[in-house]
Amino acid sequence: MRAADIGTQRVAVWGLGREGRAAIAFLRQRHPSLPLLVLDDKAGQAANSLGAGIDYAVGPDRIARALDDIDIIVKSPGVSLYRREIQAARAAGTHVTSLLNLWFAEQLDVTTVCVTGTKGKSTTASLTAHILKRLGRRVALVGNIGIPITGIDSATADIAVIEVSSYQAADFDGLCETAVVTSLYPEHIDWHLSVENYYRDKINLLNHSRRRIIHRAAAEIVERFADGSSARQDFFGDERGIHCCGAEVLDGSTVIGQVRNHYLARPP
Question: Measured between alpha carbons, how far is 242 from 222 in angstroms, rounded to an integer?
Fold first, then answer.
């Protein structure tokens, strides 16, 4: 769904954290007079500073009642897709989306590299952005790393490196150029409800990419949950390809570089 398609539909933004506030600003830029409902689980948050034309439903009971009159929910990552109220809203025909999905639907002229994984995604995203900048590219580093996706300025960046959490990957419906998976093992089961859901939700990012780059150790899990698309797929951390041994970077048995920062070096 594109923000332009919202029209006069009734929209709720669920969550008043960094991404929820960015979603409100994003919608306001495109629909200045669109009435918005803000849903927030935590009573007592300072919400009135968000401006005119915004109503609030605070606390689980008021949220549950308010959802009956909503067409679209723009959900913050912390709100689980498996939450009873979200499941009921979807079953009733409410469209549930996210700021990440709305931004991708804009189809801006920016090459996207999305990085996810149980561990290592922040480091990998940061290093990828650093290397691209050193190569002379105009890069924006955004996403779960601390800057909302809407922090990208397409006038000053031609590549967006986006750290994507499992919460954001779960319902991702855009199309990124490259998706990277750094590692996979059980985490955040309280949000995803099961290990199977967690893996499936992580790998949903791969199912919406033109190219997949995967740590070899995660290959078996990826094979179980990825779709059968024709996206190019490459592996790293594989002794037959690009991998690290101590401070050396190798392509097969050929040394192609050195890791000078001992915090990043892998024990041989």
Answer: 19
